[in-house]
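Before the break, one more example. Copy the sequence into your notebook; we will annotate it together after we see the structure.
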Amino acid sequence: MLSLSHTDLVQRAQAVRLLVLDVDGVLTDGKLYFLGDGSEAKAFSTLDGQGIKMLMSSGVNVAIITGRTSSIVERRAANLSIKHLVQGREDKRIALDELLSTLQLSYHQVAYLGDDLPDLAPIRCVALGIAVANANSFVRQHAQAVTTLRGGEGAARELCEFIMAAQGTLDAAQNAYL
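Here is what the structure looks like once it is written out:
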């Protein structure tokens, strides 16, 4: 798990007002399932979904920037009440810049979770650039930290909880379920 013992990462997480997530390989296991009728299927972790909802409830915005375009992703974003969805953009740094302009935020207020080369530029420019455990090795080398969990298996939840712990909101969010 991302550790609160990393003082620099904790300080960076304290300033986060926006978490940006990739989809394939981050919110999913990275496999693409094409069905016989030509449609596509993806599997999302409910653990990630709960973490995203808790993070948004704590006041941190969540956005998705993905290189592919999929109605499934649009549906998942709607299910989680994610308002900022950017699809079909391989130029993720430019897409991030456009999103930050709209939200009037700067890089030091952003965390980004990715897994592959198109995620590298955003990972390197934001305050908290994180790679999932099963990310491409080159991307892992350039990230500030790597989750212990794999994409589609709770990695987004791990980062959400790390941000919330750093901001002092995790205990209240979890205790609300007692």
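The helical segments are 7-14, 46-57, 71-79, 92-103, 120-125, 137-142, 155-167, 170-175. The first strand starts at residue 18 and ends at 21. Try to locate both features in your own notes.
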